[in-house]
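Technical appendix A lists one of the benchmark inputs used to test multi-chain prediction within the project. The record comprises two sequence entries:
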Amino acid sequence: DTGVSQDPRHKITKRGQNVTFRCDPISEHNRLYWYRQTLGQGPEFLTYFQNEAQLEKSRLLSDRFSAERPKGSFSTLEIQRTEQGDSAMYLCASSRGSSGNQPQHFGDGTRLSIL
Amino acid sequence: LAKTTQPISMDSYEGQEVNITCSHNNIATNDYITWYQQFPSQGPRFIIQGYKTKVTNEVASLFIPADRKSSTLSLPRVSLSDTAVYYCLVGGTNTGNQFYFGTGTSLTVIP
């Protein structure tokens, strides 16, 4: 396992700008998850993919948030018109199988700071 | 919704066994319980996962009572490097597929 890779590790941007984060999961993992984590809190589930299908997105924080996994491999999370409250760590995780009961393996996140 | 509740913090001396309990009263029938360790500026790291009774691996044990409304992570003989935040995660059903972390337990190991 090469592990889950996230890019960039840090992103600083001005309010109102769009940002996009990339996640490369462990190669044989079918499932890919996105979470948001703010200081002192546990990760907050946002969305997940089974291969290229986005099977749960009701917990995306607003319509400014969107995620894609076009070929069932890497994924991107985009935030449009960023706001101060979007400052957080964005975590990606992946897991094997299709049941959702396999352990998730996390990357080290992208830390977003909105000026 | 399978929300979780954990103690906010715990202290332990080096070499002692540490038990951290997580409450998940609304756990669904097919949900698994997974524990993670997180250091600052890193993603959570998988420790152990279980469905019922007891699970043990090389670093920890997980105890789950019959009603599954709580679980206890047991760390034997902790060292300073075990100072971290520990989270339980409940979820993974075939329907719903939403996952809930609690606020975590900050464990401090004292020399």
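The two ends of chain A are 36 Å apart (CA to CA). The CA atoms of residues 29 and 75 of chain A lie 12 Å apart. Comparable benchmark entries are summarised in Table A2.
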